[in-house]
Design brief:
Radius of gyration: 21 Å
Shape: globular
Largest sheet: 7 strands, parallel
Low-confidence stretches: none
CATH topology of the largest domain: Rossmann fold
CATH architecture of the largest domain: 3-Layer(aba) Sandwich
Strand order of the largest sheet: 3-2-1-4-5-6-14
Structural class: alpha/beta
CATH superfamily of the largest domain: Adenosylhomocysteinase-like
Helix content: 40-55%
CATH class of the largest domain: Alpha Beta
Distance between the termini: 32 Å
Number of domains: 2
Bound molecules: nicotinamide-adenine-dinucleotide
Strand content: 15-25%
Length: about 375
């Protein structure tokens, strides 16, 4: 008999670590009687994580991040008994109200992405918060100065080596290439691609485009990273030279105003500008749109925008500078396996906080090594 299965079923099926943790949790129930409040992108793989937490006995109250919540995932979560607050929004105030609503449930554990929930908790603390997790570097930087005020264990998933190489390097590289091809239907062969940022993400992006026969150059403000790119065989020219020769520019730095309207005179006709960094501030899209040299703009469906300059050159921008591997038609984000690893770290870290095996001295610190070992071993055991 055939049953209509969805993309969410596919993701759940292939989150093999989370499925094995769910099976274990059915017996151990580490979150019995606890509420977990979450503020993280809601899409297919997140469903697998939140259901694992539920299978561990938690009452889960979830909301998404700005602009990325997927309706199909929300429907499945609600049908499975998870409380999902709000729906997709680009409005920061509305998003703020959703976060407030999550905190109104006074969760015992918080799963945060960018530090919003913990920062808001400190504005209106309630008794009984045990601690939680933070997914990103940006969140870690925001929460570090708040350690004393928080005074509970908060484990930072991004600082696990597993997250660094599995997601940031391999998966962001792959999904960026996949999204470029899906959004443009254009060839990468022989095209000149400039990657801004040669951290974990940039290394993966550069490697994947090289693997797709593009001619890749790298720009990094850190001379050590620039040297690394050079020794890895990429061109590492001066910023202006790289921009002037690029057919495609991809920013993935975590910085602000990496490419701005001041760069317009350098750009080739037909250049594509795309950002894969977390915040939509790496390419100053508003500054570019407001520049006096811009004489026309064309908005395509599928998150593409073209601006025409007075001298006839055209500049294409993906997704108005938002992370383009979560944009366009049928965005699928990073690979299921990379998210399964990262989310297994999430589940194990929340379990450690719930069970009291980490204490307040672990406030805004990396994932403990024993958890990295356990997750890596679990993944490898399923394959060998
Ligand atoms: N798109 C995704 O799915 C995804 C997933 C994970 C992380 N991220 C985001 O990608 C960004 C990069 O993450 P990472 O882990 O590679 O960070 P990282 O800190 O390892 O590397 C960033 C690099 O960018 C360089 N840099 C900073 N400002 C620059 C500038 N103006 N010009 C050129 N280089 C500059 C830094 O020197 C550094 O080498 C972050 O915003 C992160 O949150 C995106």
């Amino acid at each position: 008999m055939s049953v209509l299965a969805t993309r969410i079923d596919w993701a759940r099926e292939h989150c093999r670590l989370l499925r094995s943790i769910s099976a274990e949790y059915a017996g151990t129930r580490p979150f019995e009687g606890l509420t977990i409040g979450t503020g993280i992108h809601i899409e297919a793989k997140t469903v697998a994580l939140l259901l694992t937490l539920r299978d561990g006995g938690a009452k889960v109250v979830a909301t998404g991040n700005l602009n990325t919540t997927q309706a199909e995932a929300v429907d499945v979560l609600r049908a499975e008994g998870i409380t999902v607050v709000g729906s997709v929004t680009k409005d920061a105030d509305v998003h703020g109200r959703y976060l407030d609503e999550v905190l109104a449930a006074e969760p015992d554990l918080i799963l945060d992405n960018g530090g919003d929930l913990f920062a808001k908790y400190l504005e209106k603390p309630y008794p009984g918060l045990l601690g939680g997790t933070e997914e990103t570097t940006s969140g870690r930087m925001r929460l570090e100065p708040l350690r004393d005020a928080l005074g509970v264990p908060v484990l930072v998933i991004n600082d696990s080596p597993i997250k660094q190489f599995a997601e940031n390097e391999h998966a962001v590289g792959q999904s960026t290439l996949e999204s470029f091809l899906r959004l443009t239907n254009r060839s990468t062969n022989g095209e000149r691609v400039t990657v801004f940022g040669y951290g974990a993400c940039g290394r993966g992006v550069a490697a994947n485009f090289r693997g797709a026969y593009a001619r890749v150059s790298v720009v990094d403000v850190d001379p050590v990273q620039r040297l690394r790119a050079h020794l890895d065989g990429f061109a590492a020219p001066a910023r202006e030279t790289a921009l002037a020769n690029a057919d495609v520019v991809i920013t993935v730095t975590g910085g602000r105003n990496v490419v701005t309207a001041a760069d317009l005179p350098l750009l080739r006709d037909g250049v594509i500008l795309a950002n894969a960094g977390h915040f939509p501030v790496e390419i100053d899209v508003e500054g570019i749109l407001g520049h006096p040299d811009v004489v026309a703009r064309h908005e395509y469906t599928d998150d593409l925008l073209t601006v025409e300059l007075a001298d006839g050159r055209r500049v294409h921008v993906f997704s108005r500078g938002h992370m383009f591997n979560l944009a366009g038609p049928r965005p699928i984000g990073n690979s299921i396996e990379s998210m399964d690893l990262g989310f297994a770290l999430q589940a194990r870290c929340l379990e450690a906080v719930a069970c009291g095996t980490v204490d307040a001295s672990s406030c805004v610190v990396p994932v403990p090594r024993r958890i990295d070992d356990r997750v890596a071993t679990g993944y490898l055991d399923q394959r060998y």
